[in-house]
Design a protein that fits this description.
Elements lengths: L1 E6 L4 E8 L2 E9 L1 H4 L7 H23 L8 E7 L3 H18 L3 E5 H7 L11 E6 L4 E6 L5 E6 L5 H12 L5 H9 L23 H16 L5 H27 L3 E5 L6 H13 L4 E3 L11 H16 L1
Parallel strand pairs: 1-4, 4-5, 6-9, 9-10
Antiparallel strand pairs: 1-2, 2-3, 6-7, 7-8
Helix pairs in contact: 2-3, 4-10, 5-6, 5-7, 5-8, 6-8, 8-9
The protein binds 5'-O-[(R)-(carboxyoxy)(hydroxy)phosphoryl]adenosine (KG4) and zinc ion (ZN).
Length: 318
Amino acid sequence: MLILAIESSCDEFSVSVMENGIIKSNIISSQIKDHIIHGGVVPELASRLHTKNFPFVLIDAINESGIKIEDVDYIAYTNNPGLIGSLIIGRLVANTIGYYYKIPTIPLNHMEGHIYSANIEEKFTYPVLSLVVSGGHTQIQFIKKPLKFDIIGSTIDDAIGECFDKVARVLGLPYPGGPEIDKRAKLGRDDAYIFPKMKIIDKFNYSFSGLKTASINLIRKAMSNNSLEINDFCASFQKSAIDYLLEGFENAINYFKPKTISLAGGVSANNFLRNRIFSIGTKYNIFKILVPNLKYCTDNAAMIAELCNEYIKKEFKT
Ligand code: KG4
Ligand code: ZN
């Protein structure tokens, strides 16, 4: 079975081909260099660049996989959530190819795709508890059986990725800030700056706006007297944010007793978080700890292909 998958929810246009459950190609055209001068993603620019880039990405993904487009059985694409202009381009590409070659198209959810990115190379043992951490979302999802998604916790304001990006911006680091903070944190002391203790709301919910504001105030104060040590700041901020994130996740582990714990979304590329999730898995004697391969952490179409494959398997079972 051949799946062609398209992901275009933000500033990446990606096409992937999956054959019988195996990823054959996963091409990603990133627009970071075009948005960097604006300090963040400009939605109108993102969709314009998608219209320019998609033919090359599509042709590369088809060529690398060695398949013929007319042999594709299903076309999956990201339908939501995301930037509306960016999503429309992906949907138009999917529906145009589908209409021309008479291939069914399947609209899918971006966050569910992120969750299933951890299922590409190794397989979940259910129930799964997934910590979903991206630029726009911070959620804890409980997946009792395949494709049965239950959001049991989320942030009431900023997402963790957004918080990393905003703090990095005030530090004068380039967009996207998350990977920059991750890199610099490795060179700094994580006890150099003290942040206010954040409270978990109703066991599994978060609020990151307090940490963001406290961080920005600390940076401005340190900058005003020339005492800012960027690497120390990154290490301390990162530890504080991730300790808080994992406090809610540990509550959920205790409550839901999952067989697999997992990470999903762009922030799952963070080194400190990846290490910590393994320590937590060991602490609670979790059967499987699955983190996505680094190439499947940030936005990519392979995760959409994997999600589509799961839906098709379920369809044929029932
Ligand atoms: O999932 P994603 O690619 O796009 C959204 O769906 O939002 O996530 C992007 C987010 C950005 O906020 C970026 O700064 C963050 O993921 N990110 C990281 C790292 N790599 C990407 N945050 C912390 N450490 C990283 N290594
Ligand atoms: Zn994403």
